[in-house]
Amino acid sequence: MGMYIDEVKKNLLALSEEKENFHKAVNEWKFIDSYLFKENNPDAFWPDDATSCALCFQWPINEVCLIENSKNENQLHIGNECVKKFLGDEIERQHRETIKQRKDTASYKKNKILFEKSDEFKELEILSGILSYGRRKDKLIAIKERVQIKGGPTKKQYASIHDIFQGWFGDAWKDILEYHTISKKTTNPRDKEFLNSLVRQKKSKQQLSPKQTAWFNGIKGRI
Ligand SMILES: [Zn+2]
Prior knowledge:
3-stranded antiparallel β-sheet, 9% strand, binds zinc ion, 223 residues, 65% helix
């Protein structure tokens, strides 16, 4: 924590005219605007495209506050944490209000609702269930949060999700997706458990036995 504060102070002083007194330096900065990441980056989707906070380098930041120095006209993109902790009540208030307004816009809400009803969203829900461990899960959660916040991926971006899974599981991933999709639909606990075991098997790149294939086709026929 101490290091984080020192780092932020050092970075803000370096970009301000005042070089010694942090509070004086903060007073040089004024609120310009706040925005949700995707609004200014319609094609942005992957965390790689996201902005990082100019003070603590946190990345990605979704709710971005733009501030400007009144003396040297430097502009900085700042994340929520640093706005709250370092920029004072007035900038924080303006940031919060602006973000709230942005989220209240009809197009944002409409996109979000449409997306949550879409097949893509349902599939993402299922995909996130597939990855139940480690880094892969983190990466997928990041993608999922991003598309939820931003109102959904474009077709091209969505195709990239498929590419990721293809890279992770090879040709087996389409089967894995199918097992999960059917597992969500079936209410029989025994079938569910069987389908989950198929997923594990495919993840470790083992083929199904003829008996398993027959059982699977049976479940498929019943739903
Ligand atoms: Zn920060």
